[in-house]
Design brief:
mainly alpha; two-stranded antiparallel sheet; 64% helix; globular
């Protein structure tokens, strides 16, 4: 897989178009008009996660020493900084993009291909930017909330951005065979899943409302990231605070 095939783009965009024609269900959240369909996809994803991904990830954590697990995470984080730097440039955040580029250079050389996060020790801040945030930065609205098969929470703005991120990531390894790329991608999926095991314990026991918890957390987090943490206070709440 030297590049993401145009067929993947066509299938992905076709899915979004077909979803946009789905009749809206009565829902309690205005940003989730496709809640009925989203819950079905969520149930599918949850079953795959519980039966396959979570057991594999727990086995990975049990077998791999903590130092090696940290090194693997740092390696993929260093690769991710390429996309972060690209999106900071697209948002005209030149200082942040310069810092991201510095992180890549330092961690790839002194950090042995990113195995060690030397850049953070030198004061080069780790940023979090993606194509979905870039689209939001330029004023494109989120659109309806959307749960993607395997990928999980998203929306009509972030979904195409996710595909752009995947394309950039995949094209970082033009010299690898398809088998090697598959192994690398699989390891990254396990690495990403391992980062959320402890966090997910907070949502256990919520039952049917776990869907709501994940949806609201995703929507709030994306708003926070797109606005770089500058979330305006609710007017009524602000007026109440002024009166105190």
């Amino acid at each position: 897989m030297k590049t993401v095939s145009w067929r993947v783009w066509a299938i992905f965009m076709g899915l979004l178009v077909s979803l946009s024609t789905v009749a809206e269900d009565p829902v309690s959240h205005p940003e989730d008009p496709w809640e009925g369909l989203n819950r079905k996809v969520y149930t599918f994803n949850d079953a795959v996660d519980r039966m396959v991904l979570t057991p594999v990830t727990r086995g990975y954590q049990a077998v791999v020493p903590d130092a090696v697990e940290t090194g693997i995470h740092n390696f993929f984080s260093n690769l991710g900084d390429v996309g972060v730097a690209t999106n900071n440039l697209l948002q005209f955040k030149f200082a942040e993009a310069g810092s991201d580029t510095g992180r890549i250079l330092v961690n790839t050389t002194l950090g042995l291909l990113g195995w060690f996060d030397v850049a953070s020790q030198l004061g080069l801040t780790k940023h979090d930017e993606d194509f979905g945030q870039t689209l939001g930065y330029w004023g494109i609205g989120t659109g309806p909330y959307l749960v993607l098969p395997f990928f999980g929470p998203s929306n009509l703005r972030d979904a195409p951005g996710l595909l752009a991120d995947i394309t950039l990531w995949a094209n970082s390894f033009p010299e690898l065979t398809a088998t090697e790329e598959t192994a690398l991608i699989s390891l990254n999926v396990i690495n990403e899943r391992s980062q959320y095991l402890k966090l997910e314990e907070r949502s256990e026991g919520l039952g049917h409302e776990r869907y709501v918890f994940i949806r609201d957390a995703y929507l709030d987090n994306r708003e926070f990231l797109v606005r770089d943490g500058q979330i305006p206070l609710d007017d009524e709440l602000y007026e109440g605070l002024e009166d105190e």
